[in-house]
Design brief:
- It contains five helices and five strands.
């Protein structure tokens, strides 16, 4: 049985009350995804409300630090997020946070991007890091457009 921890995050207090990409939506999606896996069991959930993944470094986020400590203590096998940008939106940091978990034996899964990252021996996961960085940057630009024009922007990855 794979032990799963989930991380949910919204950047602003306003998003806590929205119906789209809010904590309950992320939680429901993660639970639905985990239930479809043969051997996954969600053991713990972390929520960050009003924490910017762009402005606040992972080293200054309690949830990320608690997850790292739990990883070092071998408390879980999978970190499940709604989107990789829940881990962070800092282009030159977030891929390395994901890599840190992978190097410590934690599979990192994003539901929206349909990507799972894990460490394979001593081989670096450069392709995954580049992809995650690209997706995170692309999503940041989409959010900026949404805020600028006050309208939802749909981004498709084909």
């Amino acid at each position: 049985m794979k032990r799963v921890y989930c991380l949910y995050r919204v950047s602003t207090k306003k998003q806590v009350d929205k119906n789209e990409n809010d904590i309950p939506t992320q939680r429901t999606a993660c639970h639905d995804f985990a239930e479809r896996q043969d051997d996954w069991c969600i053991l713990k959930e972390f929520s960050e409300k009003g924490i910017s993944g762009y402005k606040v470094s992972a080293e200054n986020r309690d949830a990320i630090q608690d997850l790292k400590e739990a990883a070092l203590n071998n408390e879980f096998d999978v970190l499940l997020v709604f989107m990789f940008d829940r881990i962070g939106r800092i282009d030159d940091e977030t891929p390395f946070v994901v890599e840190w978990f992978a190097k410590h034996g934690i599979e990192v899964w994003s539901i929206l991007e349909c990507i799972g990252v894990h460490w394979t021996g001593n081989n670096p996961i450069r392709m995954e890091k580049a992809l995650i960085s690209f997706i995170t940057g692309f999503q940041m630009r989409g959010v900026a457009l949404e805020m600028q024009y006050n309208t939802p922007i749909t981004m498709l990855f084909l």
